[in-house]
Design a protein that fits this description.
By secondary structure, the chain is of the alpha/beta class. Helix content is 39%, strand content 18%. It contains nine helices and eight strands. Strands 7-6-5-4-3-2-1-8 form an eight-stranded parallel sheet. The structure holds pyridoxal-5'-phosphate (PLP).
Length: 223
Amino acid sequence: MAPLDIAMLEERYKAVKAGIPPHVTLVAVSKTRTVAEIQALYDLGHRAFGENYPQELRDKQPMLPRDIEWHFIGHLQTNKVKYIAPFAHLVHGVDSTKLLDELDRRAMQNGRVQQVLLQVHIATEETKHGFSGDEVEALLQRAWTWPSLRLRGLMGMASNTADQDQVKEEFRGLSGLFTRLKGGADRPDFDVLSMGMSGDAPLAIAAGSTMVRIGTAIFGERG
Ligand SMILES: *Cc1c(COP(=O)(O)O)cnc(C)c1O
């Protein structure tokens, strides 16, 4: 493993921050990164971190400061909810009612209210997860079914393609859905639209993202 270059980390972090307007939350994606790397970014003042693997997050969390906001951004299996339920700040990729049920059950057990985002399938790739727009709309109608959850908004991943117009269209579609769901039913705490990563954050922000998930541009290429 390369030694930790804090000057480089700071330079990258500042460059990323400079491209993000104040109304957009930056989640630093720290999957596969060491505790030392995360601590270094924390020491630069950053607090919101995103992880993809439940056991990895469970293992790192106790070694790092308590006031970190941990975002779970990966695909979550119901049998792994227990690892993150005691402390997760926001779960981004919720893509099934089974998962909503389990998150609600575990939140209740932990005496917490769990904030979640519903993942919407916007990419052309079949491998990406998520609900359709109609499904999300139906779920919001019965949000009371999950008393220990708070549905804070939507999350999406655009296609992994060089075609910028396609990516733009996918983000615009998700943003339109978000605005419609938020406005139509007057939901003041339905206010998070998580879209955009290192490669496509500018397009996502232009389309209305309120939260970007950025790993590589801050920490460098993953090994
Ligand atoms: C890994 C990951 C990111 C960050 O990707 P980078 O290209 O490193 O910025 C964002 N969102 C999700 C869901 C991820 O899995």
